[in-house]
Amino acid sequence: MPNIRQSVLSDGELNQTHLASMEILSRGGVTFHHDRALELFRSKGFRVSGKKVYIEEKDVRNALETAPERFEAIARAPQNSRWIGGDDYVLVPTYGPPFIIEEDGTQRPGTLADYETAVKLNQTSPVADITGFKYVAASDIAANSAYLEMLKMSLTLTDKPIMGSTDDEEAARDAMEILKLVFGEKFREKSVAIGLINPLSPLAYADDMAGSIMVYAENRQPLIILDMILAGSSGPIQLAGLIALMNAELLAGLVLAQLAGPGTPVIYGTTSCPIYMKTGAAAVGNPETLLISGAALDLARFYKLPCRTGGSLTDALAPDGQAMAEGALSALNSLKGGVNFVLHAFGMIGGYIGLSLEKWIMDEDLWQYAKIVSKGVSVTAATLCPEEIINVGSGGSYLTQPETMKLCREAFYSPKVFNKFDDVAWRKFGGRDLGRRCRDEIAKRVNSFQKPDIDPSLEKDLNVLIDKLKVKRGQRF
């Protein structure tokens, strides 16, 4: 594997940023709106004033000593388990949008049927490594228990590693109970579900997020701790200041996780970006977002933590040229920075507000391209092939050479939906534009979907548990 990593921050700048973040944590502190978290900090000797916790550099270093640099995300099907950290990275679909965005830009609230379609696309994807969570909000079922239906689909319609619920502390506890049933003795010994945590910028953790950190960490389940600071709004307009604030917030979450469960894997991440000053909206597709992501990758490497940055990010409101241009820049920026966990790799559109199924399919081809570029060129005595070049000589052709005949079907990537035909062949096969080809691919995969194997008795017990937890959340049948 070639070393393709590029840096945004120099070694000196990393040290400066670290020291600035330590000053923020020790002098400014971080607010935790969770009584049990505050009590844990007090019991470990931290200075706590009201709801504000002051964190010293030694506390950060102690936390870094127990947080692993790399871990394995376990799947129901062992062959689908994936390592996260070091030189390993995983691709994960979009997370959390309220809307489905159609090809023409029309927005509509997501449904559970949309969510099911996304789960099936994930399971059948040749490049998606992890079954995400909240691909789109399911507006047609009870909001306080929708996460239960989503978890059930993740565990029964896929056999890849999953992300779990962190809607609130109760949802996190429910997720642990479900995982304990499904994974049995592997639970707590292995990483079976990854939780997503967002600080409340600037410098705070809401009750639900702090509680979810503690629940996951107490069960040794991995966490992605990532913020979305808006430069000029919830954070400094100067990018260096935003990065120092980001770093302080993420390290505060890391410290809480390691206090609650030493050895809990923590992925360092960000979705921070500038605001578009003409509207006040997040400018996810801006070039400054790439610089912030690159700095996060540098800092994660500095602290020897796995890192999460953006996938195919865009502010476009339809799966158009802007969506793919911004998405391609974002994807390559993450890969070249040494990303380990790529969230929003497929389908993200409109600055996180929507899931586009057409863009999901486009993104799969995009990531296949990016993965090939990231591997570089293999240079060996065999691949340099001087004898073949000499034998063909001047003016010859390589079409009939044995090596060409041997490798012609697999030497180069053949895209799923991007067009490589000339005009005559393209029209012969229907002259379908990219959107139509994507819709055809979606229909083909959903219609041919085969549910992965799951023990019928386990699935029955899972359904019983899900129904019990729904009742607990106040949903009656």
Question: Could you give a short description of this structure?
Answer:
With 477 residues, the protein is of the alpha/beta class. The protein is 45% helix and 13% strand.
Number of strands: 20
Helical segment tally?
A: 17
Identify low-pLDDT runs: none
CATH superfamily (homologous) name of the domain at 64-375: Trimethylamine methyltransferase-like
Structural class: alpha/beta
Shape: globular
Order the strands across the largest sheet as they lie in space: 6-18-17-14-12-10-9
Any idea what the CATH architecture of the domain at 64-375 is?
Answer: Alpha-Beta Barrel
CATH class division of the domain at 64-375:
Alpha Beta
Provide the CATH topology of the domain at 64-375. Answer: TIM Barrel
Termini gap:
54 Å
Mean pLDDT: 95
